[in-house]
Amino acid sequence: MPARNTIFLSLALGWAEVLGAHDIVIGVNALDYSGYPDCRPEFVRAFESLANLATRAGVEGARFHVHTPLISMSKAEIIRRGTELNLDYGLTHSCYDPLPSGRPCERCDSCVLRARGFEAAGVSDPLLVR
Predict the structure, then answer these.
(1) Helix, strand, or coil here: 65?
(2) Beta bridge mates, 25
(3) Fewer CB within 10 Å, N- or C-terminus of the chain?
């Protein structure tokens, strides 16, 4: 999905300004970004600058900050960290072309990266338990 994170951040920015919040958190990952430029640190820095120019709060001196806690972690590190935090990976979804049943296709870039991450972390992906 081209510009997906740009869209997510734009919506989050608008809502943050309504709420009076100045911190936005997004789970982009630059190491396994699968060819999407809006997962890179350069994009995030540019969006943060844009946020401070494009909003009333920013123009009036408030500073928006975009936090990216996963940006430099490998997929395996992300999965291990989620496991440590008791994240239910059965509630997560990565596939760009799921089957009619909702099961992951296991072929798209996102499925392949997810599978590699789970394998490298030594954790079973609950979405693939048959």
Answers:
(1) strand
(2) 67
(3) C
Helices (H), 26-95: 41-54, 56-59, 75-84
DSSP characters over 47-64: HHHHHHHHSHHHHTT---
Distances (CA, A) of 16 to 3, 25, 58, 66, 68: 20, 11, 11, 11, 16
Distance CA 68, CA 23 (A): 11
How far apart (Å, rounded) are the C-alpha atoms in residues 9 and 48?
9
Closest CA to 122 of 79, 89, 87: 79
Would you list the domain boundaries of the chain? 4-67, 75-124
d(CA 21, CA 12): 10
Question: CA–CA separation, 25 vs 13, rounded Å?
Answer: 10
pTM (predicted TM-score)? 0.84
**Would you call 114 helix, strand, or coil by DSSP?**
helix
Q: What is the pLDDT of residues 52-74, one digit of tens each?
A: 999 999 999 999 999 999 999 99
The span from the CA of 95 to the CA of 115, in Å, is: 11
